[in-house]
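So, could you explain this one?
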Amino acid sequence: MALILIIPIALITLYVCHAVYQRLRFKLPPGPRPWPVVGNLYDIKPVRFRCFAEWAQWYGPIISVWFGSTLNVIVSNSELAKEVLKEQDQHLADRHRSRSAAKFSRDGKDLIWADYGPHYVKVRKVCTLELFSPKRLEALRPIREDEVTAMVESIYHDCTHSENLGKGVLVKKHLGAVAFNNITRLAFGKRFVNSDGVMDDQGVEFKAIVSNGLKLGASLAMAEHIPWLRWMFPLEEEAFAKHGARRDRLTRAIMEEHTEARKKSGGAKQHFVDALLTLQDKYDLSEDTIIGLLWDMITAGMDTTAISVEWAMAELIRNPRVQQKAQEELDKVIGLERVMTEADFSNLPYLQCVAKEALRLHPPTPLMLPHRANANVKVGGYDIPKGSNVHVNVWAVARDPAVWKDPLEFRPERFLEEDVDMKGHDFRLLPFGAGRRVCPGAQLGINLVTSMLGHLLHHFCWSPLEGMKPEDIDMGENPGLVTYMRTPLQALPSPRLPSHLYKRVPAEI
């Protein structure tokens, strides 16, 4: 009995001693008082970026929050974001890997979860120069345009079918299909769903792997933050091993299909899997790295695009003035006798501003992924000890009244009045991050979001469900790393173009 009491008392004593030592040795940012062992875990509200923004109002733009015994520093204005992502970038470019992220990434053999070092520099070079080069993005444009026209055809079918008249559509369903088909075609060169919406065996397996990965990652949440208690939450080595083997088996099968196709045709296609296999020797890429990079593309690109467009559509329905103005621009530039293509973007400045304003108000990853300090550094006059995690609350930065006029208003015109870069050069707007860990696929994401919005607005007028006012749309967020709408958007689309323009334009490359 005495032993049972001694162990927790010893753990609490160690924690208190460690906390006192940290506070005496370092000048840490202010923040809510942590509890022994759990830190601030029980004080954090489910939608974390909003909770941290509220705390920043009380404690200041740089705060300390303890996840168990791990210090997390959150910054919430553009000046501090610049310090973290530019001035101290080299010392804050490592990545905190949870046990599940470490398993999924083979201890950082990919890009997203790799620490900053020679491996990261190499794979980032592959992404920047090879996978996301302007030439390859242009070569893959027919796939994006194919999937966006498939979305238009699907919505048109839903809203004109006699059984669905006046019922509205679940916007997320159609956006998710575009994101899913687009990313699997870009990464794997495969469209797992046929023209009738039926998924093949590989597609069913792919979806099951994605779902199982999310389930495994979520199962360890509490244990990740309290290392002393991990013995109570053992890592299910067998479950992770089975998941990894299943993921690798599917990926290798697709890689072998592409290798055989290249042998027959004598040439490589533009898809990422072909690109990585043909570049394997040039960049000395291991199979683990190739598989890791392919799954990085999928996890980073599948949800974020659909999320961004759903939020944008919610804002456009709540702001009919903006919707009408964007449609007037589309009608003037495109007309009513053809569909928009990505080549039209340069002539559609207001549409681009609509996309940018949606990404400002609703960044899909509002806290980005945490950066980890590889040395003791100072930010905002406070100490950040080595091993601490640093988060930039890009949601709060983009709503800061000190740098944005009427920050809560959805007003795309602000970007006509002032050109603000959103690919990491202006620290007021950071939907894709900045510095050494800026998203290499930012331009691809921007192109797809802009294309989806353009087609949705050109082909349809959008209004709330019958009996519902625009202001009744729920603009709350679901908890999580990415910000789905708490209540999925349902809306009434009304076709506004001739019926022959609602057909999918298939592309095979």
In short: The first strand starts at residue 62 and ends at 67. The chain has a mean pLDDT of 91. The chain has one domain: 2-502.
